[in-house]
């Protein structure tokens, strides 16, 4: 299967990918126009505290008197934003480092590979926790920066491997023999062939960012005044929501994280199938034996 | 069955045991050095005792412990303790005035142990003779009585003058502490410290509870849960929605009582930024609905503070109601507008402020969230920055903030907290470390009041505190928001004798030392 | 031989880089350990006392950075990490030694179980492609693998701990009032405490193994040598295990070794949620308590275990897969 | 000579996303004991699929859609795995298209031989070793290579090791799918000679697939020409070569430049093989056939017996004899 | 005779193999001297790994020679400096790669390479006409209807179709020499001949030269004017195709010709003639590389590398035995290939 333009078609043709894409689309809409999903347009508006679900509040209100459903809807934006930003930035870093490692060759390659491997074995979560604690994890740029720093290496390694396998592919030599410049070869001949790997890599990083961000917020190293799912969980946890009849305060954001994560994972799962035709599902017909 | 039975099976006896649920944040190190602040809460009150117990809740009412009595000279520069006869250390050796003098001189020799800075604030000598110990001060030092008599645990000379302890008392682990208190450490694991009644304790027949388990809780939730289910009987932390979570689980036996002890306040930088302008500070003081902050931040479990800085009802005798009424600080949008206008702010030019707080202090975070929401419609944008404790401290001490959310340690009378807030000796120029006056308030007149207080009589002391309240109200150097309390949950199923609002014989929180000793001595098995 | 030398070289260089990072990161943070100490004494301390404390704690920051760095490297090699500030005055190595068995027991065992179980399920669903197991299990576990650790933990607590009124404990490594030791009561208690945390790790990590194993088996099954094995008349089950699974698991070994290496740090959030007295939780408290010596020691520990695991997996793969040996 | 294998009306379909594709369509084939049958055809015409169907080694998405494979009197299509197992390798062995992939890369040659023998009840270590060494030497490889991994052998050696493995039990039928196509001319020739020699020596029958027509010309007794999933012609090799009964066979032969003789311009066969998903309604070769006539576009030709040869061409239909004469003249 | 269009002198390519410690030199092409004249098809045959593709790649400047020089139109390639000069060489000498599965970028339609080539090398074709031009060359290699093929992606094409795309790319530049590395190996038998015919008509009608690398000796005979035979990095025989095939002089050529299956002839060789593997040319020592497999080998063959000598007009052979038979023993060593 051609890695590039076929992706969209392949996603639509793959049940799991389609499910993932639809879920993701809903989250994207909620992030862009949360107003569509709730009548309360200020997630911090206060009502009576700890109302049960129903009672005019779909999931009830929390100990702060906020409407949990509204919080959930408005929390989508930050969670998604972090995922996408980290996904994009880390992808760019891994492309630059991975592909140039493969193309530099020699000492440059060795150094970049070493850098990649070092970042790969350095424990990410502890590092994030340390950096977040001291650099002010609450600040979005810091958070994104930290996630990018710890998130790029795996993708870089994969991209390097792929680029290495391309390095001696004849179509690159064919382009060179045609008279193309090196920059053209890298940007227009190599990158397009790695589209599905880059996409899979992006999804992987986004999932990682989503879970890590939520984890950081949860243990209280994020920005607790942000509207995000991790923050909701943080507050729910510190307010003993599970024990005080506010289960939805915990279940809803966790479920949202899980669903968004699942949409990434499903898409990624599908990308595996798209990238490797052998994995594609086959229909089995009853055969006379 | 609940109650203390969980611990009773292990030591074979049928006697009731007590389990304390108090979040320490870490596991135990099995060190009990009472001068090491990270572990002193495990030894003071249990193993080590003070000379005299001073009750902050009852106007500094004194209960003699190791010292039978104490006496100030009339110039309040000499303090004499008479040491009780017949007290034995838990290893059987007698406790003498020598031990007491040794303890204080140990602090002198090792500055790292002198946590209350006794020797750098006027204490000049400590000498024992017979059964008395005499202390000499360079200035009248009556307020230091609290630190000397109540806050300094007495340690045995025969242990601390030899070996490991003598070599480096700061790093001394003190794994097997020898003290004079009601308990000894019978077993220590990183997960749990077990105490056993001290057979040599000088109060006959006490303590009535023979075994105590003090598990290490690293997080609130499990501690809360153990309290709610009755597995632990003595709690000392914030339980969200305590009525529903805790009391409702066992309406007859689960109780709580939260006596206020100090203020949680907003420190306002008086030296730089918008808050150097009194009008801005006043606008802020009129902008906050403290009751609502309490309701949202801690579910109403903390009382709101008054601008005078007097913790109520604890120190109600000191409160100057008339002065407070004159200013009438409470949320008032009109006044906010007026003062903001005076300072030159308007809707076109809103006031932008940032406030620092400690990340991980979730109650503070929630309170600031609420304050931020309150200020917004009033034209004040508050940027809440939750930063790591160390960074926070660094900024707080150096004056590198506009607003800072924080609290003082307080003491048994309003004087202590007010002095921490307002005395110029406790401050420092921006960029240097201030020890407690973070707002950097300084006024000759106020300083004179503080200097006069230690030597003054009771009536004059009240007058001085009234004047100091006036400073708080007029100059708004800090804005007290909520009163911090001594967190206290208790279970009466198998144990009685707990302090209550009616019988406030000690600060009730298990982490309040040495008040915990008073509680332990009052407790007894039910029936 | 060259293979070994090269891998060892990589190991040493990476270790050195990681240790160096580890040295500099805390020093790039604002403040210093002395101030951390001051904060711990709630500002009641006067400058003299502070000086005295600094010396006592070995927090003398006057030495040039380079000297400190060399000393640090030396100490790291000899395992001297100084005393912990949180658990003052316990040496860091003791503190870590207390926590390590818990993590190894909980996360280590769970990781092995997850790997075995996931590989087994993956093998079967890959072999019986599009069978019932294959159409249900992999997608389900792909979804569960996207759930946050702590949230799964919370839900498990809600259902199995609160729901059963504490039959399965939700916090700690064991009942603190028990006497730790090799007695049945204690061991059963430890296992009971491990069930929920280990279940949450299992739920989240097993999906990855299932999926990779399944995909590897599916690609392996398409290989001609599997068809060949069938042509030889070898029984189906034998082919599945001896040919398909054996070959398909090879690429997973490296991942398994690495995840074993990450055991030490991997389940921070689970340990946090369940208040489990392991290394991950300890790291978290070291961070919040600004306990640099402890933090550095844990980092070194984690990095070294990961590196060793990677090294072992390299050798193991080389041992089991002749192709790798000759390729390098 | 007796009939060892009788394939009748065998069809195989692949399930694809755009519906089932028939890759082998109603193929008849019989093989006598000790006979060397060649199958030629262009790439993708269904040769490998046919072989797998005969050996019952199809995997999804492929499945037998009809027909019978009678081997030693038993219909293999109707047998289950348990019934097939004893026949496999002992009576019928397979040499796959690419030896690199057909040998398990992580097992030594020795172990792969042993696996096959153990599966058929030979347990004695000595017996296994002796037999392994025997067959390896039979194909001219030193016995030390029993301990080698596949990747340590060169392409030609791997092919030979495969062939040796196929001979572990001296089966009655060895199916070979392009065993030499990855080799260069010289190596190819040498391996073919060896196979032929072994076959004559041990007396097994061979079905040999290739798309290189000239290769089979020297080695096979009978030749089947496949085109677009169908059998086009089947008969004694010499006869097919000398007077091809099907225009496609003739086209193939004409497309070969000669190594000797005069250099004459050749034309090949214009056009391309049909797409398996969109077959012409009549004869599949009709769009490219130089001899086509009206009926070809609508009538599906059957297999007609022409002397010793079967051919699927309407020219041999009794109804169209006139046209056939025309064809022969050309 | 005018100067040849493309000429190689002492062309050598050495690859470094192995790691840091045990470095070796693999002589993929060793001291090759040959020339390709205008309007000539030269076939290059030889066993797998003998260095055929390496020669083509050297000529296409995929990588530089380790030693030796390539002359184009009488000018050395090492003298090309500016990008314009390099581009003009690239336009004149395009290459068709051996493996059609890896030589087309899977991310683009098949028109991509052709259109890019036109943009770089055919300024006379306006941007809007490039698509038409692409269709024209596709039709020329027998891919019709071309309008349908241009929009396809490589994965939608068979190996044979891809191979023809590669050839079409080269055609689009209006080249002078096409370096065709096994351009028909994947074509079905019935189509192969069509492309061979395209090659001959290119030569006959447009005077295009070709280096035709192949394993298929019969097809080489069909199209080529001259043939060069390689063995283990060296050219062992070269001459007019009929001479080389009709009367091979080098023992390897003889083996090769004998191995070619001829459906219409009787099986000539029944004996096992060639076992043994072609040598890898790693750190070679002097001597004939075929000596170990050669039935005629003598002592001199193992110690002295036979030079490529012109044994008959236009026929050059590198073999001690053949040279001796032709009366040109090892004593009269006048290297061939330099006298043109
Ligand atoms: N998994 C599959 N799904 C769909 N179609 C398939 C599959 N495998 C093979 N085919 C189709 O079946 C047809 C026959 O394939 P087969 O491999 O039998 O050809 P072949 O004659 O052996 O070709 P070659 O000479 O290239 O080996 C081809 O057209 C191919 O496209
Ligand atoms: N980039 C390279 N690095 C190292 N060795 C190489 C490289 N390219 C080619 N070789 C080696 O050079 C020798 C000649 O290779 P080349 O591809 O020229 O052979 P060939 O004659 O084209 O073979 P084939 O007929 O299989 O295409 C081979 O041994 C090959 O392994
Ligand atoms: Mg095939
Ligand atoms: Mg080649």
TrEMBL record, chain A:
It comes from Microlunatus elymi. Keywords: Cell membrane, Membrane, Transmembrane, Transmembrane helix, Transport. The chain crosses the membrane at residues 17-37, 79-104, 111-134, 140-159, 184-211, 248-271. Residues 80-268 form the ABC transmembrane type-1 domain. The keyword Disulfide bond does not apply. SUPFAM superfamilies: MetI-like (SSF161098). It is found in: Cell membrane. It comes from the Bacteria. This is ABC transporter permease. The keyword Transmembrane applies. One of its GO terms (cellular component) is plasma membrane. It is a multi-pass membrane protein. CDD domains: TM_PBP2 (cd06261).
UniProtKB/TrEMBL annotation, chain C:
Coiled coil: none annotated. It is found in: Cell membrane. GO terms for cellular component: plasma membrane. Residues 100-313 form the ABC transmembrane type-1 domain. The keyword Repressor does not apply. It comes from the Bacteria. It is a multi-pass membrane protein. Keywords: Cell membrane, Membrane, Transmembrane, Transmembrane helix, Transport. The chain crosses the membrane at residues 99-124, 136-160, 190-211, 248-274, 294-320. GO terms for biological process: transmembrane transport. Pfam families: BPD_transp_1, BPD_transp_1_N. InterPro entries: BPD_transp_1_N (IPR045621), MetI-like (IPR000515), MetI-like_sf (IPR035906). Belongs to the binding-protein-dependent transport system permease family. This is ABC transporter permease.
Automatic annotation (TrEMBL), chain D:
Residues 5-253 form the ABC transporter domain. The keyword Transport applies. It comes from the Bacteria. The keyword Transport applies. Keywords: ATP-binding, Nucleotide-binding, Transport. One of its GO terms (biological process) is peptide transport. InterPro entries: AAA+_ATPase, ABC_transporter-like_ATP-bd, ABC_transporter-like_CS, Oligopep_ABC_C, P-loop_NTPase. SUPFAM superfamilies: P-loop containing nucleoside triphosphate hydrolases (SSF52540). SMART domains: AAA. One of its GO terms (molecular function) is ATP binding. Belongs to the ABC transporter superfamily. This is ABC transporter ATP-binding protein. It comes from Microlunatus elymi.
From TrEMBL, chain E:
GO terms for molecular function: ATP binding; ATP hydrolysis activity. GO terms for biological process: peptide transport. Residues 6-257 form the ABC transporter domain. Keywords: ATP-binding, Nucleotide-binding, Transport. SMART domains: AAA (SM00382). SUPFAM superfamilies: P-loop containing nucleoside triphosphate hydrolases. InterPro entries: AAA+_ATPase, ABC_transporter-like_ATP-bd, ABC_transporter-like_CS, Oligopep_ABC_C, P-loop_NTPase. This is ABC transporter ATP-binding protein. The lineage of its organism: Bacteria, Bacillati, Actinomycetota, Actinomycetes, Propionibacteriales.
């Amino acid at each position: 299967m051609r890695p590039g333009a076929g992706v969209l078609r392949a996603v639509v043709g793959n049940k799991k990918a389609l499910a993932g894409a639809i879920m993701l689309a809903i989250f994207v809409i909620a992030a862009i126009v949360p107003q569509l999903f709730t009548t309360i347009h200020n997630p911090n508006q206060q009502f009576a505290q700890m109302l049960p679900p129903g009672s005019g509040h779909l999931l009830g209100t929390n100990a702060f008197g906020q409407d949990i459903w509204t919080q959930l809807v408005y929390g989508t934006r930050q969670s998604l934003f972090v995922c996408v930003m980290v996904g994009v930035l880390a992808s760019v870093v891994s492309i630059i480092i991975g592909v140039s490692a493969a193309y530099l060759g020699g000492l440059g390659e060795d150094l970049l590979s070493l850098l990649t491997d070092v970042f790969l074995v350095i424990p990410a979560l502890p590092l994030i926790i340390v950096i977040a604690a001291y650099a002010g994890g609450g600040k979005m740029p810091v958070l994104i920066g930290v996630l990018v720093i710890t998130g790029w290496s795996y993708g870089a390694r994969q991209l390097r491997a792929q680029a290495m396998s391309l390095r001696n592919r004849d179509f690159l030599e064919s382009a060179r023999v045609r008279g193309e410049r090196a920059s053209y070869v890298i940007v227009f001949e190599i990158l397009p062939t790695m589209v599905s790997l880059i996409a899979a890599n992006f999804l992987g990083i986004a999932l990682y960012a989503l879970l890590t961000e939520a984890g950081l917020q949860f243990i209280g190293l994020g920005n607790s005044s942000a509207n995000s799912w991790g923050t909701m969980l943080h507050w729910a946890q510190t307010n003993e929501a599970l024990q005080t009849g506010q289960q939805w305060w915990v279940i809803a954001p966790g479920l949202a994280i899980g669903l968004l994560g699942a949409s990434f994972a499903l898409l990624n799962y599908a990308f595996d199938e798209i990238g490797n035709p052998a994995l594609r599902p086959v229909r089995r017909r009853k055969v006379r034996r | 069955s609940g109650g203390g039975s969980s611990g009773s099976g292990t030591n074979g006896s049928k006697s009731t045991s007590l389990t304390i649920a108090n979040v320490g944040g870490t596991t135990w190190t099995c060190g009990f050095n009472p001068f090491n602040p990270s572990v002193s809460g495990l030894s003071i009150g249990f193993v080590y005792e003070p000379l005299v117990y001073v009750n902050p809740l009852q106007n500094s009412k004194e209960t003699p412990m190791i010292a039978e009595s104490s006496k100030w000279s009339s110039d309040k520069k000499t303090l004499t303790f008479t040491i009780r006869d017949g007290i034995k250390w838990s290893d059987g050796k007698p406790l003498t005035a020598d031990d007491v003098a040794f303890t204080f001189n140990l602090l002198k020799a090792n500055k790292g142990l002198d946590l209350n800075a006794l020797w750098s604030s006027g204490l000049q000598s400590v000498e024992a003779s017979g059964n008395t110990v005499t202390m000499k001060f360079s200035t009248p030092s009556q307020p230091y009585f609290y630190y000397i008599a109540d806050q300094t645990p007495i340690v045995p000379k025969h242990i601390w003058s030899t070996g490991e302890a003598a070599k480096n008392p700061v790093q001394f682990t003190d794994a097997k502490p020898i003290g004079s208190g009601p308990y000894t450490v019978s077993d220590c694991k990183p997960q749990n410290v077990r105490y056993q009644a001290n057979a040599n304790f000088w109060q006959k027949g006490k303590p009535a509870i023979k075994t105590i388990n003090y598990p290490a809780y690293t997080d609130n939730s499990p501690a809360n849960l153990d309290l709610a289910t009755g597995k632990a009987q003595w709690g000392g932390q914030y339980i969200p929605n305590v009525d529903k979570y805790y009391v409702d689980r066992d309406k007859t036996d689960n109780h709580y009582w939260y006596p206020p002890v100090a203020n949680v306040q907003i420190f306002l930088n008086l030296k730089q930024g918008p808050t150097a302008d009194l009008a801005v500070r006043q606008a802020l003081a009129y902008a906050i609905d403290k009751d609502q902050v309490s309701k949202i931040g801690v579910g109403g479990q903390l009382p709101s503070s008054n601008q005078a800085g007097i913790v109520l009802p604890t120190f109600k005798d000191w409160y100057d109601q008339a002065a407070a009424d004159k200013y009438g600080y409470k949320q008032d949008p009109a006044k906010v507008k007026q003062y903001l206008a005076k300072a030159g702010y308007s809707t076109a030019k809103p006031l932008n402020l940032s406030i620092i707080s400690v990340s991980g202090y979730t109650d503070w975070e929630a309170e600031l969230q609420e304050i931020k929401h309150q200020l917004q419609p009033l034209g004040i944008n508050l940027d809440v920055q939750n930063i790591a404790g160390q960074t926070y401290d660094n900024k707080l001490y150096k004056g590198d903030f506009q607003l800072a959310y924080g609290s003082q340690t307080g003491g048994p009378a309003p004087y202590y907290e007010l002095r921490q807030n307002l005395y110029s000796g406790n401050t420092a120029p921006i960029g240097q470390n201030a020890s407690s006056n973070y707002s950097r308030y300084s006024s000759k007149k106020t300083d004179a009041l503080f200097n006069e207080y230690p030597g003054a009589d009771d009536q004059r002391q009240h007058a001085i505190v009234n004047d100091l309240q006036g400073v708080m109200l007029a100059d708004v150097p800090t804005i007290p928001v909520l009163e911090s309390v001594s967190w206290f949950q208790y279970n009466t199923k198998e144990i009685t004798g707990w302090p209550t609002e009616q019988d406030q014989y000690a600060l009730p929180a298990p982490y309040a030392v040495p008040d915990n000793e008073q509680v332990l001595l009052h407790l007894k098995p039910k029936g | 031989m060259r293979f070994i030398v090269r891998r060892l070289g990589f190991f040493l260089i990476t270790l050195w880089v990681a240790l160096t990072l580890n040295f500099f990161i805390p020093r790039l943070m604002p403040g210093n350990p002395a101030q951390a100490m001051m904060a711990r004494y709630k500002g009641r301390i006067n400058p003299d006392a502070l000086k005295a404390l600094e010396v006592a704690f070995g927090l003398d920051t006057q030495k040039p950075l380079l000297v400190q760095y060399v000393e640090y490297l030396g100490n790291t090699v000899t395992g001297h990490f100084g005393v912990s500030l949180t658990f003052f005055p316990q040496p860091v190595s003791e503190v870590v030694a207390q926590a390590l068995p818990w993590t190894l027991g909980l996360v280590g065992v769970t990781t092995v179980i997850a790997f075995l179980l996931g590989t087994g399920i993956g093998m079967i669903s890959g072999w019986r492609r599009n069978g019932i197991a294959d159409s249900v299990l992999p997608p389900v576990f792909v979804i569960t693998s996207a759930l946050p650790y702590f949230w799964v933990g919370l839900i498990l607590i809600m259902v199995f701990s609160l729901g059963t009124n504490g039959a399965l404990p939700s916090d700690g490594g064991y009942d603190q009032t028990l006497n730790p030791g090799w007695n049945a009561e204690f061991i059963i208690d430890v296992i009971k405490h491990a069930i929920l945390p280990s279940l949450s790790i299992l739920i989240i990590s097993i999906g990855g193994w299932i999926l990779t194993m399944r995909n590897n088996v599916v690609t392996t099954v398409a290989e001609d040598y599997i068809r060949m094995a069938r042509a030889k008349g070898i029984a189906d089950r034998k082919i599945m295990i001896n040919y398909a699974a054996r070959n398909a698991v090879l690429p997973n070994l490296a991942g398994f070794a690495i995840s074993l290496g990450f055991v030490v740090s991997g389940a921070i959030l689970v340990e946090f949620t369940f208040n489990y007295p392991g290394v991950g939780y300890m790291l978290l408290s070291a961070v919040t308590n600004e306990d640099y010596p402890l933090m550095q020691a844990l980092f070194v520990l984690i990095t070294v275990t990961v590196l060793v695991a990677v090294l072992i997996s390299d050798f193991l793969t080389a041992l089991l897969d002749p192709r790798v040996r000759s390729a390098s | 000579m007796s009939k060892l294998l009788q394939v009748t009306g065998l069809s195989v379909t692949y399930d694809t996303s755009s519906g089932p594709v028939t890759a082998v369509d109603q193929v008849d084939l019989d093989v006598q004991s000790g006979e060397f049958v060649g199958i030629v055809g262009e790439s993708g015409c269904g040769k490998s699929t046919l072989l797998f169907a005969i050996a019952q080694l199809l995997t999804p998405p492929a499945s037998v859609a009809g027909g019978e494979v009678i081997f030693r009197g038993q219909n293999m299509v109707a047998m289950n795995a348990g019934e097939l197992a004893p026949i496999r390798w002992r009576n019928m062995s397979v040499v796959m298209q690419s030896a690199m992939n057909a040998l398990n890369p992580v097992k030594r040659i020795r172990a792969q031989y042993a696996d096959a023998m153990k599966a058929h009840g030979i347990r004695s270590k000595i017996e296994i070793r002796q037999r392994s060494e025997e067959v390896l030497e039979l194909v001219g490889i030193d016995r030390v290579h029993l301990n080698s991994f596949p990747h340590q052998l060169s392409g030609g050696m791997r092919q030979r090791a495969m062939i040796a493995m196929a001979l572990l039990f001296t089966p009655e039928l060895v199916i070979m799918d392009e065993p030499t196509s990855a080799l260069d001319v010289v190596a190819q020739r040498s391996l073919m000679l060896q196979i032929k020699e072994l076959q004559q020596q041990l007396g097994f029958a061979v079905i040999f697939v290739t798309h290189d027509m000239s290769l089979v010309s020297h080695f096979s007794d009978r030749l089947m020409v496949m085109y677009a999933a169908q059998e086009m012609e089947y008969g004694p090799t010499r006869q097919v070569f000398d007077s091809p009964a099907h225009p496609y066979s003739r086209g193939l032969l004409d497309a070969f430049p000669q190594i000797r003789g005069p250099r004459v311009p050749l034309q090949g066969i214009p056009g391309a093989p049909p797409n398996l998903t969109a077959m012409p309604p009549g004869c599949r070769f009709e769009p490219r056939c130089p001899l086509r006539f009206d009926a070809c576009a609508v009538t599906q030709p059957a297999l007609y017996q022409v002397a010793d040869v079967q051919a699927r061409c309407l020219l041999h239909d009794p109804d169209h004899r006139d046209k056939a004469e025309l064809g022969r003249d050309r | 005779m005018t100067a040849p269009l493309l000429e190689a002198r002492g062309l050598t390519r050495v690859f470094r193999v192995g790691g840091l410690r045990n470095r070796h030199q693999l002589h993929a092409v060793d001291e090759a001297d040959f020339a390709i004249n205008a309007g000539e098809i030269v076939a290059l045959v030889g066993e797998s790994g003998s260095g055929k593709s390496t020669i083509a790649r050297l000529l296409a400047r995929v990588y530089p020679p380790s030693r030796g020089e390539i002359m184009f139109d009488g000018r050395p390639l090492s003298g090309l400096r500016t990008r314009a000069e390099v581009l003009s060489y690239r336009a004149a000498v395009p290459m068709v790669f051996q493996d059609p599965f890896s030589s087309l970028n899977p991310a683009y339609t098949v028109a991509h390479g052709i259109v890019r080539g036109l943009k770089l090398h055919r300024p006379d074709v306006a941007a809007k006409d490039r698509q038409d031009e692409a269709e024209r060359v596709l039709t020329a290699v027998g891919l019709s209807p071309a309008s349908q093929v241009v929009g396809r992606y490589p994965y939608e094409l068979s190996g044979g179709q891809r191979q023809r795309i590669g050839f079409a790319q080269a055609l689009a530049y209006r080249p002078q020499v096409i370096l065709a590395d096994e351009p028909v190996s994947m074509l079905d038998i019935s189509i192969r001949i069509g492309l061979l015919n395209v090659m001959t008509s290119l030569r006959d009608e447009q005077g295009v030269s070709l280096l035709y690398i192949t394993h298929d000796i019969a097809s080489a005979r069909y199209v080529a004017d001259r043939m060069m035979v390689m063995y283990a990095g060296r050219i062992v025989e070269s001459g007019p195709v009929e001479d080389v095939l009709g009367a091979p002089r080098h023992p390897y050529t003889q083996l090769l010709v004998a191995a070619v299956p001829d459906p219409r002839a009787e099986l000539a060789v029944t004996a096992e003639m060639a076992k043994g593997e072609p040598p890898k040319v790693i750190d070679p020592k002097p001597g004939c590389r075929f000596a170990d497999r050669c039935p005629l080998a003598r002592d001199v063959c193992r110690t002295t590398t036979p030079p490529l000598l012109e044994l008959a007009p236009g026929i050059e052979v590198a073999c001690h035995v053949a040279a001796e038979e032709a009366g040109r023993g090892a004593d009269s060593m006048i290297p061939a290939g330099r006298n043109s």
